[in-house]
Amino acid sequence: MSAPVYPAWVTRWVSGQWRQKKRPPVLRPTRPLVLADKVTNRKEKAGEATCITEMSVMMACWKQNDFNDAACAEEIRMFYDCVEKAEKERKNLNEDTLSPQGNMPSSKVNKLLRRFPQMTRYV
């Protein structure tokens, strides 16, 4: 008596070749896998407010002294010094550097994408 002859699909199924882990899945992207020429412009999130304590001390002094600037000259000077220092720090932050969150501004990303465009075809 001869051995039974099975169809080819049965031998593949028994040997485990039908399993997905044996062969990689077929991925077909819907769009070409290249970067876009530009990114959308997004507003940068406002940072923390500065000089809040100095401003609240100055306003409390004004309230106590019926909004007299002469009586609150020291508090006003401290507030303006704080504002000046915060402005210097804000100007020192260059646009080339990353934000504190680690993000790059969209304007800088667009400049880099214009400088280094995507290759759409091979030479």
Would you write up a description of this structure?
The chain has 123 residues and is mostly helical. Helix content is 41%, strand content 0%. The model has no long low-confidence stretch (mean pLDDT 80).
Q: Helix and strand layout, with pairings?
A:
Layout: H1 8-15, H2 52-64, H3 73-92, H4 106-115
Helix pairs in contact: 2-3
Strand content: under 5%
Shape summary: elongated
Mean pLDDT: 80
The biggest sheet amounts to: none
Q: How many DSSP-defined strands?
A: 0
Order of helices and strands: HHHH
| SS content category | mainly alpha
Question: Helical amount among residues, as a percent range?
Answer: 40-55%
N-to-C terminal Cα separation, in Å? Answer: 65 Å
| Poorly predicted sequence stretches spanning 5 or more consecutive residues | none
List the total number of helices: 4
* CA-atom Rg in angstroms: 33 Å
TL;DR?
With 123 residues, the protein is mostly helical. It has four helices and no strands.
Key attributes of the depicted protein:
41% helix, mainly alpha, 123 residues
